[in-house]
Amino acid sequence: MKSNIILTLLISLFICTSLFSQGGLGQGSFGNGANILRDSTDTSGEINVTLSGKTKYTDYKVFSHKGDITYIDTTLTLQKEYKFNYLRKDLFEFLEFHNQGQTLNNLGYSFNSINRLPGFGFSAKQASYLDIEDIKYYEVPTPTTEILYRTGLQQGQVLDALFSLNFSKRLNVSLSYKGIRSLGAYRQSLVSNGNFRGSFHYRTKEDQYQIRGHLTAQDFFNEESGGLTAESLVNFTENDPDFTTRARLDVNLDNTESQFDGTRVYLEQSYKLVSSKDSINNKDFSNLKIGHIFMTENKTYEFIQTSLTTGFFGDANSSNPDDKEATSKITNNELNIEFNSKYVLGKFKAKTNLTSYSYGYDTILNSNSAINKLKIEGNAISFGADWNAKIKNFQLNADASVTPGNGRLSGNYLKGEALFKKDSIFSVRGTLLISSKSPNFNTLLHQSEYDAYNWQKDFSNVNTKDLGFDFASKWINASLNFTNLDNYTYFDENSRPQQFTDQITYLKVKANREFRLGKFALDNTLMYQNVSSGSSVFRVPEFVTRNTLYYTDYWFKGKPMLVNIGVTFKYFTKYNANAYNPLLAEFRIQNDEQIGFPTFDVFFNAQVRRTRLYLKVDNATSSFSDKNYFSAPNYPYRDLTIRFGLVWNWFI
User: Fold this and answer.
1) Do the Cβ atoms of 376 and 358 come closer than 8 Å?
2) Average pLDDT of 272-291?
3) How far apart are CA 430 and CA 470, in angstroms?
4) pTM summary value
5) Taking a C-beta distance cutoff of 8 angstroms, is the pair 590, 493 a contact?
6) Are 273 and 301 in contact (CB under 8 A)?
7) Is the pLDDT reported for residue 42 higher than 60?
8) Rounded to whole angstroms, what are the CA distances from 542 to 94, 114, 526?
9) In angstroms, rounded to a whole number, what is the distance separating the alpha carbons of residues 53 and 51?
């Protein structure tokens, strides 16, 4: 019902967009400075959009949470092929489950992002969750629409619709909805997800007052199979012809579902107390600005069974509660003051955050449980600062925060970044992150009707140190990250949360290079990983490679169609991939099975004006290759699958 209401609202808005076309817009300045960036897929320096009158493609702006600017891009490139999936992200470092919209296993990890607050947990259900940093804001001179459609597996489809329009030169609004329903090839693998997001931003004349915000409502429903039974695994790996229809294979769970929901309201506003038009030469408090950020977010997770499955999860003792949800609510208010000054070489912001948090359950779920605390809740205050400076070809950024006290939110972080850019020839970036924060809430407190899944822990903060370098040029793109982790928190072979007593040392090196010859190109990405300490609990493949050979050309008289035709080879070395636990919605370590296999994907993509068409054959060699391809133990990767889709833009 919720999805139908949202779709009706979006369709109604689309019908009305022709009433609100306005002229061009000025610059926005939220975030850490509006650094104008071209889309990473645009190698020519131009985006091929034909518009009438005085409107240019650079008028159709997309703002990230940090304030970086890209443009609505209607080109067809190889990077668009990599991102044409349900998440609309390059999944090089991930291993998909067979049905789109399901969770992802990790082939690599990144620890260079700032997270001041502990997570809700149940992380396998949040692969599709849109965080604050994922929300985009738009400035468009005319109503703008983008539609993504992609066929599902067996039954269903993906639809991602965006409507953005300007009510005036300084007020822009966008509404988006992404929905998926896909049955899947195996039993108990139905996916039905929805992501609604609405965003706006407004500024007064001369940008003295600015406000932006967004609202999200996200729901993720999955049938849970628990993977194939032992007998079905034999039938799959031995390629029994009686079971080529995968729905004939038995699974471990029946009548089992999981539901994850999340809502968020985010508002950010600022007011200039002092401003100067000449902010470059006169840096003595040329911009003195006060700001306020409000955020409240609610998340719930429930594992649903019509009857208990004691043979799979162990003994159970239910107290027959009406409400079995784990719930989390975090409300945060930030007050900040920001100024430009010659004394700080750029922009400086001081900030204070007031946070209230609550996580837990409304009642005891298991009559044998020894848990004596239903909720983890409290309040915290943190103090921090941001600094941004540009000195010739160097861009320097720093962000720090500390949350004092003994509460669950106590911790700190410091992130520094230095970027050197030599025109368009090359750029070098170095980053350092030092952080200390609580593990996810579900590792500290969890309840279940199954005896083995009840715990109340008092873990120490997880301490992270990450040193990173990135090099980008027209010859090669490369990155290196060296990470140390103390008190790393994980789920053991019995699906119990543990903290690793020793230090984990993790090295990740990734490089990309494309070779071109006429209308043909070979794109290569290679990742090397090494865990020199802590490999007993932190597992990654040593090598991951992706190589794409493709052909690009214009077809037909007048060049109305651009085509990309190619094949992508991906391979990762064998490793003890984490196993998936559907009750926890988490991955746990295992020592029984190693996973590592190659895949070949064939694609035929085309662009006609502002429409991109995609035809793809996933795992094209599966019909005659060994049946050793798994996303996680007991969960086979997808067989040969043909998918069709398109992305279509309208500029009214």
Assistant:
1) yes
2) 68
3) 6
4) 0.89
5) yes
6) no
7) no
8) 14, 26, 11
9) 7
